[in-house]
Input
Amino acid sequence: MLSYLKHPFFWGPTACSVALLVLLGATCWEYQEATADHQQTVTAFASSTDTYRSFTYEIRIREARLAEEKEAVIRNLTSEQERNNAIQNQIDGLKGSVAVIQKVNATDKELLQKYSKVYFLNENYAPPQLTVISPEFVWGIDKALETHAQVTPFLHALLGAARSQNIDLAVLSAYRSFNTQASLKSAYTVRYGAGANAFSADQGYSEHQLGTTVDFTTRAGGSVLAGFDETAAFTWLREHAHLYGFVLSYPEGNNYYVYEPWHWRFVGVELASKLHAESRDFYDMDQRVLDTYRISLFD
Ligand SMILES: [Zn+2]
Output
């Protein structure tokens, strides 16, 4: 029954088939192995791509954050610089204000003060420094007249200008101390009684005590002051004195004191020029307005 098993035609093809099957099986197995490896590689690659993507994304976020921080720092720096500049400007402004205040404080407030029969200069007041008026401009022999040291140059300029225009003008009286004034007044009082108050200057005396005020005369008129307002010197003073900072304290028809055409007070070029331009008198001005000219008094 199994005799065909012994037949060579049976074993030949069978052996071939078995060999083929074995070969096929081995190939399939290898193929499966390779496929699995490939799949693994693909999976690994995909996962590393994801990692790469998320890493790139993080870097971008970090870059953006850094850029924002950088901008914030620059903004802060700019505003800090602006604040520093503002502070510097304030400091500069303060320095300027301090300089102005120092200049104002350095200028004696009495020098632009209005005096009246009730408001006198303190009897102990004396100018910080006096200088002698050049004798060539003074009326009288051996008379050493003095004015406030900072006013004397302006007075010399005025007198020099008058002389250059052939105006007969000289100084009769200048700085007078409280004591000098007191004895002068008592001499007047003895001679003229109570009427002395009318012209010997309860008021004008304060201005002489400042050292900024002079009484002018002419060489022709000498110590006689009456009629001074009819001289060429007076006309010249009315037109030019403001250029040297002098004003007539008590003009004709004023409401504060007797008319004194010879009595001129230094108030600074700026204020004197303003008063001249506006045809106003020193004593007509508000004291607070006058005070604002202290800053430019000796300019
Ligand atoms: Zn006078």
In short: The beta strands are 130-132, 146-148, 170-173, 213-217, 246-248, 263-266. The chain has two domains: 3-105, 108-296.
